[in-house]
């Protein structure tokens, strides 16, 4: 096992995600950060980690983040899959799911919103887990 631990983190451009990244770095983790904006790149520079712009909705972006992390650090010890409803939210979620003026009953939310929400908030975790789990299983000392 190396002398350091490595954390891959999504949604680190601001708020809770950025706070989690700072805390992980403070406790000694090397961090690999991604968000839809350049804020994760700037934060990674501040923390001495890897930063990239990308979307949790894109498998290629998640794979590239993991590939960059493995190339730089050779391991993954922790994954923080953070997601808010920032810049890359599907239009249906912006206009219906988070519209404070929407006062319709839950049963009137369209199927498109349910599918977009599932993709954004649940399947992004599944996609990243599929990529990192084999790596973590092959390592000594990693925990899911």
Describe this structure in words.
This protein is α/β, with parallel strands linked by helices. It has a domain of 98 residues: NAD(P)-binding Rossmann-like Domain (Rossmann fold). Helices cover 49% and strands 15% of the residues. The protein has five helices and four strands; from the N terminus they run βαβαβαβαα. Strands 3-2-1-4 form a four-stranded parallel beta sheet, sandwiched between helices. α3 packs parallel to α5 and α4 packs across α5.
Search tags:
5 helices, 15% strand, Rossmann fold, 144 residues, alpha/beta, four-stranded parallel beta sheet, 49% helix
Structure classification? alpha/beta
Widest β-sheet, arrangement of strands: 3-2-1-4
- The number of E-state strands comes to 4
Average of the residue pLDDT scores: 85
Give the CATH superfamily of one domain: NAD(P)-binding Rossmann-like Domain
Tell me the number of helical segments per DSSP (H or I, 4 or more residues long). 5
- The level of helicity is 40-55%
Cα shape: globular
- CATH level 3 topology of one domain: Rossmann fold
Which secondary structure elements does this structure contain, and how are they paired or packed?
Layout (H helix, E strand, L loop, with lengths): L4 E6 L4 H12 L2 E7 L3 H9 L2 E4 L5 H15 L4 E4 L9 H7 L13 H28 L6
Helix pairs in contact: 3-5, 4-5
In short:
The protein has 144 residues and is α/β, with parallel strands linked by helices. The chain has five helices and four strands. It has a domain at 5-85 and 122-138: Rossmann fold (3-Layer(aba) Sandwich).
